[in-house]
């Protein structure tokens, strides 16, 4: 396994809630591992499942809509932490593909909400199942203790995502 690259001067170590210092080298390893994992998963899915060509930004919009229900473009942009014009472009491509539609906003007839279509739900389900199969196959190739370590880290990784603000989007 390649050594992590020192991308910048070391930052001062932070402390965990238990007061224990968080080592910069460990944070760098985590950053590198998450980046490599995401890239490897995206690449392997496209190799194993050539039909999977939906860009991650579009998948993330579909996931958000599946979790929240219909939203205005501005609300989507805030949740994704993207510029509204960027989200408008992504929504346009999803509209063209038939994965989302425009719906009347009951609170404001001048605006529309973007919602998932049945095709969007199916595409998102296919995407999710393909990733689950790929991850399950990869986990099965690991030594039992490595597979267990990955699975045992899930709660901590979920809490890390929450701490980074995934579950607390900025106000629209």
TrEMBL record:
Where does the record place Low complexity bias?
Answer: 8-18
**Which superkingdom?**
Bacteria
Keywords of the record: DNA-binding, Transcription, Transcription regulation
For this protein, the record's Gene3D superfamilies field holds: Winged helix-like DNA-binding domain superfamily/Winged helix DNA-binding domain
Tell me one GO molecular function of this protein: DNA-binding transcription factor activity
Task: Give positions of region: Disordered.
Answer: 1-25
Q: Where is the HTH marR-type domain?
A: 27-159
- Give the InterPro entries listed for this entry: HTH-type_Bedaq_tolerance, HTH_MarR-typ, Tscrpt_reg_MarR-type_CS, WH-like_DNA-bd_sf, WH_DNA-bd_sf
Entry's SMART domains? HTH_MARR
Q: What PANTHER family does the record point to? A: CONSERVED PROTEIN, HTH-TYPE TRANSCRIPTIONAL REGULATOR RV0880
The name under which this protein is listed is MarR family transcriptional regulator
């Amino acid at each position: 396994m390649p050594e992590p690259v020192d991308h910048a001067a070391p930052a001062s170590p932070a402390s965990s809630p238990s007061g224990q210092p968080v080592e910069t080298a460990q944070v760098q390893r985590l950053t590198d591992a998450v980046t490599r994992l995401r890239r490897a998963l995206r690449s392997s899915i496209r190799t194993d499942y050539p039909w999977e060509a939906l860009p991650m930004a579009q998948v993330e919009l579909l996931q958000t809509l599946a979790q929240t229900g219909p939203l205005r473009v501005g609300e989507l942009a805030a949740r994704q932490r993207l510029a509204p014009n960027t989200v408008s472009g992504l929504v346009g491509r999803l509209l063209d593909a038939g994965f989302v539609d425009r719906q009347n906003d009951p609170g404001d007839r001048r605006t529309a909400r973007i919602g998932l279509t049945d095709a969007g739900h199916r595409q998102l389900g296919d995407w999710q199942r393909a990733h689950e199969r790929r991850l399950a196959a990869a986990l099965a190739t690991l030594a039992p203790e490595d597979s267990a370590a990955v699975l045992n880290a899930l709660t901590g990784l979920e809490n890390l995502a929450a701490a980074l603000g995934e579950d607390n989007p900025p106000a629209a």
